[in-house]
């Protein structure tokens, strides 16, 4: 039985899943919108929202935590300087999932995941 087993396994080992979520969160914070499968988007939301929440309070321990998770100094700087200012008034719900149909090859459900309050003028880098 799977009682109290939270999260999706996504048919991956734990190390692969952790690495994939780190890479996807880095891409999401860099481009502010990415296209992925619906299940990955839902799991990414659970992974990236605590990171954004901890970046709102700027202290050394939060900076170390975020840089340990994301592994990219450029993205950590963008998160603490730009994205945290946009999300300052929000208490949660930093991401939005928009369903966008099915993938042509295997008919899996696809979705865009984006940061709420992102710059609308940018074009999609990862359609």
From TrEMBL:
One GO MF term: structural constituent of ribosome
Keywords: Ribonucleoprotein, Ribosomal protein
InterPro entries given in the database record: Ribosomal_bL17 (IPR000456), Ribosomal_bL17_sf (IPR036373)
Entry's Gene Ontology BP terms: translation
A GO cellular component annotation in the UniProt record: cytosolic large ribosomal subunit
Pfam family, any one: Ribosomal_L17
Presence of keyword Ribonucleoprotein: yes
Subunit structure: Part of the 50S ribosomal subunit. Contacts protein L32.
HAMAP family named among the record's database cross-references: Ribosomal_bL17
Family per record: Belongs to the bacterial ribosomal protein bL17 family.
Designated name of the protein: Large ribosomal subunit protein bL17
